[in-house]
Amino acid sequence: MAKRERVMRMSVEQPLWRALTAYRVLTLFYATGLFVAKRDEFVRPEVAAGFYVVLFAWTFATLPKVANAASCSRPFLAADLTVALTGILLTPVADAHDRIVEGGPTLPSIWTAGSVLAFAVKGGWRWAAFASALVGVANVVQRGTLDQDTLHNVLLVWVASIAIGYVVEVARASERTLARALEIEAATRERVRLARDIHDGVLQVLAMVQRRGSAIGGEAAELGRLAGEQEVALRTLVSGGLVPVSRVSEDVTEGAVVRAVDEPDPQDDSAPRDLRPLLAPYATAKVTFSEPGTPVRLAAGAAKELAAAVGAALDNVHRHAGADARAWILVEDEPDEVIVTVRDDGPGIPEGRLARAEGEGRLGVALSIRGRLREIGGTAELISVPGQGTEVELRVPKNVPMDGRQPKAPKGSRGARGKVDRT
Amino acid sequence: MSERQDPIRVMVVDDHPMWRDAVARDLAESGFDVVATAGDGEQAVRRARAAAPDVLVLDLNLPAKPGVQVCKELVGLDPALRVLVLSASGEHADVLEAVKSGATGYLLKSASTEELIDAVRRTAVGDPVFTPGLAGLVLGEYRRLASDPAPATGGEGPRAPQLTDRETEVLRLVAKGLSYKQIAERLVISHRTVQNHVQNTLGKLQLHNRVELVRYAIERGLDDV
Fold first, then answer.
1. Residue B219 has pLDDT above 90, yes or no
2. B25 with B115, same domain?
3. Would you kindly state where each structural domain of chain A is located, as residue ranges?
4. The sheet that has A419-420: what strands, in order across it?
5. Which of A201, A380, A396, B191 pairs with A257 at a CA distance of 20 to 30 A?
6. Is B88 within 8 Å of A326 when comparing Cβ atoms?
7. Contacts of B189 in chain A (CB under 8 A)
8. Overall number of domains in chain B
9. Which CATH fold topology does A265-423 show?
10. Model-level pTM greater than 0.90?
11. Smallest Cα–Cα separation from A206: which of A234, A236, A243?
């Protein structure tokens, strides 16, 4: 059994955690540096020094906590924010009042932002708004007044953290979507592979029954014939994926639930659709269907008319060439037109008979085929070579002008004139 | 059929024991020398190298190694080996890929015993065995090659192969189910000429495939290895 394919995860989030780790360490040194440079101006440098010792210990001890979303727990976030807020509130105790009023840095200075960022990366913009609001309040308390400068800084932190939180949420959502899409794709591929194996096995057995049946003869031959018919039907159905199953994904548990759905028939007749699935059902043990192997796109209306014309041509084969006649359908996808040829191996139409039939007005089927083709701007040509059966060649231009112009239409009212090729 | 001095050496590769045995038995009864059989891709490659058959009757849907890969490897080792693809489902992409990498015939498993034996015989002498379905695919492939934009390697890249008008005509008639004899009659050419035209359509496709592979190797710097 093939293992279920692992869905590759491309994390947008992981680099953010790494950046946060680096940010916390760098800003720790920055904050400490600020203190060391101006330690003479502090009224109680021992308080500040004590805080920095704690901050060092805390930052390095909790480095693994900011390695990824899973280890960044709520208690850690709460504790981290507490450390930051304590630092801010200790500033008036440790530092000179003048410096604070002049807008000097708090003890943790920009290290605080790391704590707020952790909230943003972990929980999105709401958590970020909450954490930065607390930091803002602490800043105002520390400063003692709500002046222009403080408000400015508080707002800046608030907006920035919310923005980052929002970006993280979006990144996470798109990551989930991508993972789900990859999983659906893998599941579909696996399903197609399984279906292919199963079908191949069934086809083999059917072909074998047909083979052995016709060798044994009698009743077995009849069984063989039936198996042969089913073999053709199933092969036509599965080969080249002519019958794509429409699927939708349902996002119940954010996993990949894929369900096959019935696709509604396209109502728009001018929308392009693949001609092949319309013709494939005509294939039987006696009718061979050949196509280019890739979708043959035609306006839906034109494709339906063309398929109906092919059906009429095949009916005609059965009527005139007998039930045992074989027939071949060939679809060709030219750059500017689609050509479908229906050929049978009947006796062909004897010389002169076409003209006579036309004169007697007995070209009913040919006329109906030609009429269908004319409606979609195409042409139908009847070619008969004695001893090589009859061919009906249907040509439909790809860009059908809707006024029904016929690029190669037979001239005048003698629309049913057949062309007889002779060797 | 004319008696040959040396019977044609055939190897049958199919994962279905029932099929493998039936095909091998039919071929042996018709005077072919079935030198080996294999049930999966790996086995097929190993045994074909040891048994050196003239014709490989190959199923495409194989365990261990896909039939297309088996065809590529074995034809790569011995370009004289003829490969007749015998497939149940006729997956379009697989069939085209097998033909491009060297198979010269393709037959559905629903073909009769007589058709199979005739196909193996024709494959052995180098005649391509075309079904109408395969002719349709090959026509489609040429049209795709013609309409695809040229590869972006400047002007010196190989041009996409093209069919002559006559080749297209012949291929279309094959796709419409005419026999070579009927085609020869209709176009007033010899049976041999029809065969040559059909062979050329495959040959160009295979050559193009090889040229593309070599170009790919050079682009990736694999030719220095």
1. no
2. yes
3. 6-263, 265-423
4. A287-290, A327-333, A337-344, A390-397, A379-384, A419-420
5. A201
6. no
7. none
8. 2
9. Heat Shock Protein 90 (3.30.565)
10. no
11. A234
Nearest CA-CA partner of B47 in B14, B21, B22? B14
pLDDT digits (tens, 9 = 90+) for B99-150: 888 888 888 888 888 889 999 998 998 888 888 888 998 899 888 888 876 5
Please tell me which of the candidates A212, A294, A423 has its beta carbon nearest to residue B144. Answer: A294
| Among candidate residues B129, B151, B175, the one where a domain is terminated | B129
Cα–Cα distances in angstroms (integers) from residue A240 to residues A277, A281, B70, in the given order: 10, 14, 21
Q: CATH number, domain at B164? A: 1.10.10.10
Q: Which domain holds residue B57?
A: 9-129
SS3 B162: coil
Contact between B51 and B36 (Cβ < 8 Å)? yes
Distance CA B10, CA B197 (A): 26
Quote the longest CA-to-CA distance of chain B: 55
Asked if residue B153 is part of any domain, the answer here is yes
Q: Measured in Å, how far apart are chain B's first and last C-alpha atoms?
A: 49
Is residue A306 within 8 A of residue A340, CB to CB? The reply is yes
From chain A, the residues in CB contact with B22 under 8 A are 208, 211-212
Tell me whether residues B61 and A385 touch, CB distance under 8 A: no
The answer to whether residues B113 and B215 belong to one domain is no
